[in-house]
């Protein structure tokens, strides 16, 4: 069974930074495309960023230039470095691969 465990969320002021991490187990990590998605309060799931097995990265327009996704195939982890956070980034962030999604980590951007 695939397990994805996210960590790193919390409360941060606008303009601040957070680094999210996702640890994967039970799957063949290296060939897998990994994605981060988020769900803001009262809204649906929204794709944020993805990284292919070859390290190619993709970003939603609203995070491009602020967020950086990376992966460590030796550790089976994928990280999301989030800079210049704003209140609209407040959401629960989930790690996804295929049809699997973790439990999420909450990010709150507020004064």
Summarize the structure.
This protein has 111 residues and is an all-beta fold. It has strands at 3-7, 10-12, 18-25, 34-39, 45-51, 57-59, 67-72, 77-82, 91-97, 100-101, 105-109.
Question: Could you please describe the fold and organization of this structure?
Answer:
By secondary structure, the chain is mostly beta strands. Helix content is 0%, strand content 52%. The chain contains no helices and eleven strands. It has strands at 3-7, 10-12, 18-25, 34-39, 45-51, 57-59, 67-72, 77-82, 91-97, 100-101, 105-109. The strands form two sheets. Strands 2, 4, 5, 6, 9, 10 and 11 form a seven-stranded mixed sheet that branches. A hairpin with a 2-residue loop joins β9 and β10 (100-101).
Attribute tags:
111 residues; mainly beta; seven-stranded mixed β-sheet; four-stranded antiparallel β-sheet; 11 strands
Using DSSP, what is the number of strands? 11
Tell me the fraction of residues in β-strands, as a range: over 45%
* Percent helix: under 10%
The overall pLDDT, averaged over residues, is 94
**Which residues sit in consecutive blocks of at least 5 with pLDDT less than 50?**
none
Q: Rg from C-alpha positions?
A: 13 Å
């Amino acid at each position: 069974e695939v397990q994805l465990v996210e960590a790193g969320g919390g409360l941060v002021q606008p303009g601040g930074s957070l680094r999210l991490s996702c640890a994967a187990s039970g799957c063949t990590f290296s060939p897998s495309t990994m994605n981060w998605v988020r769900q803001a309060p009262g809204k649906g799931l929204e794709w944020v960023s993805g990284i292919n097995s070859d390290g190619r990265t993709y970003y939603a327009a609203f995070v491009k230039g602020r967020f950086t996704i990376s992966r460590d195939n030796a550790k089976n982890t994928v990280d999301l470095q989030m800079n210049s956070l704003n209140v609209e980034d407040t959401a629960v962030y989930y790690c996804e691969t295929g049809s699997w999604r973790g439990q999420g980590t909450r990010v709150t951007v507020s004064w």
